């Protein structure tokens, strides 16, 4: 059985599981899976930047938040529908990421991380201070839900299929992108920028392109997230989200596209279990317990599975392919 055929079976199996979950699962499970689709998909974009492009950006919550706020403000004020607002938000974020990314991406490593972290602090603080526009720290309330004609998306089940369809579409797009000429160029300068330049690859241009693409995807995720919650406030899009995304990327593994999504599954369900079982014992220390637990988990993953769960999964799949090949031979 070829690896291509196996990968198709894995994709079909995953889609089948996602389709069946709402049928056999409880509304609670459906609700958690909605969050996994949003944050797992968001982590995929961040993992692509970190693990495959070598761009150490901490600005992902910025694009997520700006997309959510732009679409939310337009919808609340009756200027545009949530659908149109999400597109306008994505265009706005694409423009801002282009203007900011062009100079910032000249920096590397620690310096780029510090610069994008500064951008995160500036944007989060600004969203909290412009009360007349964003609602300040009290939040932007009354964001209308998405609708198709006269059909309004109001329940978790409605959003479940929308979110997972978009998440899988983004994964499919990124898989095709990374298999294209652009993807090969991105992988080449992750290994060595000097070697990539010597082969005639325009490294700054490709860096900027993938930075804008992942920013626009994060913007759409933010728009869908705020319409799902029907609320937005600066704390949702701050440093705590960045830590959560980084945890997903490290646990899942950043050298594969599906790794951060796998990390999203693990992180979100572990958070639910911690809150469920320890929330009653330590009701005022939920955040501290989460931070402690995931800090320990990250250390364990980095020491024993530096490639993350996806690296371990790939080794199992390769072992299975070799076993099947020997038995068929």
> What structural class is derived from the secondary structure elements?
mainly alpha
The strands making up the biggest β-sheet line up spatially as 1-4
Overall helicity: over 70%
In N-to-C order, the SSE pattern is HHHHHHEEEHHHHEHHHH
Number of strands: 4
The number of domains: 1
| Rounded average pLDDT | 85
| Low-pLDDT windows of residues | 1-6
Q: Supply the number of helical segments.
A: 14
Q: Please indicate the percent range of residues in DSSP E strands (runs of 2 or more).
A: under 5%
Taken from the alpha-carbon principal axes, the silhouette is globular
Distance between the termini: 11 Å
Short description:
With 329 residues, this protein is an all-alpha fold. It has one domain. The protein contains 14 helices and 4 strands.
Attribute tags:
329 residues; mainly alpha; 14 helices
Describe this structure in words.
The termini are close together. The chain has 329 residues and is an all-alpha fold. It has one domain. It has helices spanning 3-24, 27-52, 60-76, 82-104, 109-129, 131-134, 156-178, 181-191, 193-198, 203-229, 239-252, 259-278, 286-304, 308-328, and strands at 140-141, 147-148, 151-152, 231-232. Helices cover 77% and strands 2% of the residues. The strands form 2 sheets. The protein has a two-stranded antiparallel sheet with strand order 1-4. The protein has a two-stranded antiparallel ribbon with strand order 2-3. Residues 1-6 have low confidence and may be disordered. It has 14 helices and 4 strands.
């Amino acid at each position: 059985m070829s690896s291509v055929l196996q990968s198709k079976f894995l994709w079909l199996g995953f889609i089948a599981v996602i389709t069946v979950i709402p049928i056999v699962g409880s509304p609670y499970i459906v609700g958690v899976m909605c969050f996994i689709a949003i944050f797992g998909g968001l982590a995929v974009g961040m993992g692509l930047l970190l693990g495959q492009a070598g761009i150490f950006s901490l600005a992902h919550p910025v694009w997520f938040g700006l997309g959510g706020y732009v679409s939310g403000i337009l919808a609340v004020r009756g200027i545009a529908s949530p659908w149109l607002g999400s597109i306008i938000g994505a265009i706005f974020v694409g423009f801002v990421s282009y203007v900011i990314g062009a100079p910032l991406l000249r920096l590397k490593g620690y310096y780029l991380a510090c610069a994008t972290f500064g951008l995160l602090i500036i944007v989060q603080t600004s969203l909290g201070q412009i009360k007349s526009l964003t609602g300040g720290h009290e939040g932007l309330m009354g964001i209308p839900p998405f609708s198709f004609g006269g059909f309004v998306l109001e329940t978790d089940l409605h959003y479940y299929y929308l979110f997972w369809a978009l998440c899988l579409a983004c994964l499919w797009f990124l898989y095709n992108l990374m298999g294209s000429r652009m993807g090969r160029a991105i992988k080449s300068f992750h290994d060595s920028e000097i070697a990539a330049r010597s082969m005639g690859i325009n490294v700054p241009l490709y860096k900027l392109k993938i930075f804008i693409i992942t920013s626009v995807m994060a913007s759409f995720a933010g728009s869908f997230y705020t319409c799902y919650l029907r609320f937005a406030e600066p704390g949702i899009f701050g440093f705590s989200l960045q830590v959560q995304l980084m945890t997903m990327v490290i646990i899942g593994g950043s050298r594969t596209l599906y790794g951060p999504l796998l990390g999203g599954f693990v992180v979100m369900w572990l958070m639910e279990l911690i809150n469920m079982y320890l929330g009653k014992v330590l009701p005022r220390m939920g955040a501290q317990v989460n931070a402690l637990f995931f800090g320990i988990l990250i250390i364990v993953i980095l020491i024993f599975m530096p490639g993350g769960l996806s690296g371990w999964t790939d080794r199992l799949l390769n072992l299975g392919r070799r076993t099947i090949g020997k038995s068929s031979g």
